C-alpha cells in the first residue's frame, strides 16, 4: 500500500496523487457500509496496481478539518479575493465570506486585487479597517505583478480554498504564482460587468512550492443557516467579538441595549459603520430564519 492525497473525484472514482503518480481509485465497500465518503483533500492509503495506475482506497487518515461547502478535507486556510473594480468591491459579500470562514475556523487572508484600477484609495481603506481587526490583507495586481510573491509565500505548505465572486482574478492570481497551471481566465462581459463561470469541477491543485489550492468560487453556499440563534453571530465578527465582553448584558446583541460597548466603539470609530450595518443585516436574516420554525 502507498499513501497519497485525493485531488479529484468524478463519478465514483477518486484520483489519488502519490509519489509515483496519480492513481484512479475506487473506494472500498466498507466505506459505504460505514457511511464514510472519501473527500477531496483526504490523505489516504491505497492498494495500487502499477500496470494500469488504478487502485482501491483502503484507509482514510484522520481529518484535520472538514469543510462542508464545498466538501473538502484538511483545508487550512481561506484566501478571500475581491477586486476594487470590475466587479466593484462588495463589502457585504466580504463580510459574509468572513463569517463563513470564521465558522469553519480557517486561517483567513483577504486579497484586494486589481489594485491597478484603484484611484479612490479603496484598497487602502480596506487595508486599514481589516488589518485593525486582525486580518492579513494583501493589495495585489496581476497586471502590475504586485504582491504576487507575498501571496506565493502565503500559500506555501497550506491547503487553501480561494473564495470570492467570479471575475475578481482568482485564476489569474494562481496563474501568476505558477504559470504552468494555465487556468482558464474569463473576460468580463462588458454588458453585465460580471465574470463568466469558467471554473467547473472541484480539484486540488498542487503547487511547485508546496501546498495545495482549490480554484473554486469558494463557499458553494452563502447561506447563514448554520447559525441557529442570533447570539451566535457575533462570534464570527472578529471586531465585535473583541468588545462584546464589556457590554452590560451578557445577552447583548448590540442593537438597542443600554451600556453597549460595541455601540460605544462604533461611535468612537473603532468599529466601522459598514461592518456594523452588515452585522445588523445578517442578524435580521437569522431572526427571519429562526422565526420560521
Ligand atoms: N486590471 C486588472 N485585471 C485583472 C487583474 N487580475 C485579473 N484581471 C482580469 O479579470 C478578469 C477575470 O479574471 P479571472 O482570473 O478569470 O477571475 P476569477 O473568475 O476570479 O477566476 C480577466 O479578464 C483578467 O485578465 C488585475 O490585477 N488587474
Ligand atoms: Mg476562475
Ligand atoms: Zn453590546
Looking at the overall shape, the CATH architecture of the largest domain is 3-Layer(aba) Sandwich
Mean pLDDT: 91
Shape: globular
Strand count, sense and closure of the main sheet?
6 strands, mixed
- Tell me the number of structural domains: 3
Tell me, what is the CATH class of the largest domain? Alpha Beta
Given as residue ranges, the uncertain stretches (5+ residues, pLDDT < 50) are 189-199
Count of β-strands:
13
- Bound ions, cofactors and other small molecules, one mention each: guanosine-5'-diphosphate, magnesium ion, zinc ion
Account of the protein in words:
With about 290 residues, the protein is an alpha/beta fold. It has eight helices and 13 strands. It folds into three domains: about 60 residues, Nucleic acid-binding proteins (OB fold (Dihydrolipoamide Acetyltransferase, E2P)), CATH 2.40.50; about 140 residues, 3-Layer(aba) Sandwich (Rossmann fold); about 60 residues, Probable gtpase engc, domain 3 (Ribonucleotide Reductase Protein R1, domain 1). The strands form three sheets. Strands 10-9-8-11-13-12 form a six-stranded mixed sheet, sandwiched between helices. A hairpin with a 5-residue loop joins β12 and β13. It is globular, with a radius of gyration of 21 Å. It is found in: Cytoplasm. GO terms for molecular function: GTP binding; GTPase activity; metal ion binding; rRNA binding.
Amino acid at each position: 500500500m502507498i499513501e497519497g492525497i485525493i485531488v479529484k473525484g468524478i463519478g465514483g472514482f477518486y484520483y489519488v496523487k502519490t509519489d509515483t503518480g496519480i492513481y484512479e481509485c475506487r473506494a472500498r465497500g466498507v466505506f459505504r457500509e460505514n457511511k464514510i465518503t472519501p473527500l477531496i483533500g483526504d490523505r489516504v492509503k491505497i492498494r495500487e496496481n502499477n500496470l494500469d495506475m488504478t487502485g482501491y482506497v483502503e484507509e482514510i487518515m484522520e481529518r484535520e478539518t472538514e469543510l462542508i461547502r464545498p466538501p473538502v478535507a484538511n483545508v487550512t486556510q481561506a484566501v478571500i479575493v475581491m477586486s476594487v473594480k470590475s466587479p466593484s468591491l462588495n463589502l457585504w459579500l466580504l463580510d459574509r465570506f468572513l463569517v463563513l470562514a470564521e465558522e469553519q475556523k480557517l486561517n483567513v487572508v483577504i486579497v484586494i486585487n486589481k489594485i491597478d484600477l484603484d484611484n479612490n484609495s479603496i484598497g487602502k481603506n480596506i487595508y486599514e479597517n481589516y488589518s485593525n481587526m486582525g486580518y492579513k490583507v494583501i493589495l495585489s495586481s496581476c497586471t502590475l505583478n504586485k504582491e504576487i510573491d507575498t501571496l506565493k509565500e502565503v500559500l506555501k505548505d497550506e491547503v487553501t480554498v480561494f473564495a470570492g465572486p467570479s471575475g475578481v482574478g482568482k485564476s489569474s492570481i494562481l496563474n501568476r504564482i505558477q504559470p504552468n497551471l494555465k487556468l482558464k481566465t474569463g473576460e468580463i462581459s462588458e454588458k453585465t460587468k460580471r465574470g463568466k463561470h469558467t471554473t467547473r469541477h472541484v480539484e486540488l491543485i498542487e503547487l511547485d512550492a508546496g501546498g495545495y489550492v482549490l480554484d473554486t468560487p469558494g463557499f458553494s453556499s452563502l447561506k447563514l443557516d448554520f447559525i441557529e440563534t442570533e447570539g451566535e453571530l457575533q462570534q464570527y465578527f472578529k471586531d465585535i467579538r473583541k468588545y462584546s465582553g464589556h457590554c452590560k448584558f451578557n445577552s447583548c446583541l448590540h442593537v438597542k441595549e443600554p451600556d453597549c460597548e460595541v455601540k460605544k466603539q462604533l461611535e468612537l470609530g473603532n468599529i466601522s459603520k459598514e461592518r456594523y450595518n452588515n452585522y445588523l443585516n445578517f442578524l435580521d436574516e437569522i431572526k427571519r430564519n429562526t422565526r420560521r420554525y
